[in-house]
Design a protein that fits this description.
alpha/beta, Nucleotidyltransferase, domain 5, 3 domains, 47% helix, Transposase_DDE
């Protein structure tokens, strides 16, 4: 045990009066510097009357690998404006049990490491680290300007295994994640529009999404002036699953007596789903041979390229011509999976046509979803979805 009377800059207004090592930790007793003014933590005015004095145990940054505890005498002051308030301490937040230095240390490392690793690094309990990080994220988000979006992007991402999803909403102009909520139903996304408010909902001009009927219906109800824009990526992905995959399986079954050809068709799934420009040069002869030998696969493969052209038109007139042409080719093909897909696509024509006026897509949010997956893997998952959603919004605050 050592007695000192040191005034140190990192504990402004206090003097270290005693230092002792006990039970694998360093304990430091502080006492008020006589010349330090008494300042109200509420209004910041100087006070001259003390209501009572107590001692608070505060955690400080580790020292040489050992935890550090401070015994800090804190006074409750009688303020003429605020009433009874605790005095202000520059290096300690109100009601806090850790110093600002330790909280900043935790905040910096929580941006780079999982919470469990930060707990070992700082020597703090998991719940303490999470509480510090949550407060930091809330301060960071509250400092952002009030969003005034006019174009939105909505998409879902996997939250947990077992088909549990969450929905993210992005401001298409600033690339700021405005809201994240669990679920992908109308009821799940309704809190976003309630948070946005009637006035800002009326300012929304366009919303990009996949062909999710729940999203579509809720947007039309909440945002009367918004046009729904369907994303090409999701439509083509759906085409690959429901048309190309189905025709490939049907053709493989038809070739059950020709085992070599059946094997080639069965193993060609990823080759057929690739865009032509992404086919490796060494695989191109194999693809050409496969398509030349199978008329049905050739038809649906080329029809995918024609489908993409619907998103590349620059005016409504040429779009309508392309739309009618594509459906005429579907009717002439005689391929049942292709016809079924076309029948499902017809009711969504307005959202596809809207792409002419609003060249939007969900690609921005797809990239963000990939980073969300990395955050989730790095943390080995999150127990608290609300905390995870705070992390996502803070990670994507938008362009300055």
């Amino acid at each position: 045990m050592t007695d000192h009377n040191l005034e140190l800059p990192f504990w402004e207004g206090f003097i270290a009066s005693k230092v002792e090592r006990r039970s694998g930790a360093v304990w430091i007793d502080l006492r008020r510097c006589p010349s330090a003014p008494m300042v109200c933590s509420g209004c910041g005015h100087h006070c001259y009357r003390v209501h009572e004095t107590g001692v608070r145990i505060i955690r400080e940054l580790p020292m040489l690998g050992q935890p550090v505890w401070l015994r800090v005498p804190l006074r409750r002051l009688r303020c003429g404006q605020c009433g009874t308030r605790t005095e202000r301490v520059s290096w300690l937040d109100r009601h806090a049990r850790v110093t600002r230095a330790l909280a900043d240390f935790v905040g910096v490392w929580c941006e780079k490491l999982p919470v469990a690793h930060v707990c070992k690094l700082a020597g703090l309990h998991w719940e303490t680290v999470r509480t510090i990080e949550r407060a930091r994220l809330e301060r960071q988000l509250s400092a952002l300007p009030e969003p005034q979006p006019t174009r939105l992007v909505m998409d879902e991402f996997a939250l947990f295994k077992g088909h549990r999803y969450a929905t993210a909403v992005l401001d298409a102009d600033t690339r700021r994640v405005l809201w994240v909520g669990e679920g992908r139903s109308r009821e799940a996304i309704r809190p976003f529009f309630e948070w946005l408010g009637t006035k800002r909902c009326a300012n929304i001009e366009a919303v990009a999404m996949d062909m999710n009927t729940a999203f579509d219906l809720e947007v039309r109800q909440q945002c009367p002036n918004a046009r729904v824009v369907y994303d090409l990526f999701h439509v083509v992905a759906k085409y690959g699953r429901e048309v190309i995959d189905r025709v490939r399986v049907d053709e493989a079954n038809r070739l059950k007596d020709n085992r070599p050809q059946r094997k080639i068709v069965k193993r060609a799934r990823w080759l057929l789903l690739r865009n032509p420009q992404n086919v490796p040069p060494d695989q191109q002869p194999r693809l050409n041979e496969l398509l030349a030998a199978n008329q049905a696969l050739m038809t649906v493969y080329l029809m995918k390229a024609s489908l993409k052209e619907l998103w590349q038109q620059h005016d409504a007139k040429t779009w309508r011509l392309a739309w009618r042409s594509w459906f005429a080719m579907v009717a002439d093909s005689g391929i049942e999976p292709l016809r079924r897909f076309a029948d499902k696509l017809k009711p969504y024509w307005r959202g596809i046509l809207a792409r002419v006026r609003w060249p939007m897509h969900t690609g921005q949010l797809e990239g963000i979803n990939n980073r969300i997956k990395v955050m989730k893997r790095m943390a080995y998952g999150y127990r608290d979805s609300a905390f995870f959603f705070l992390k996502i919004k803070a990670a994507f605050p938008g362009n300055p």
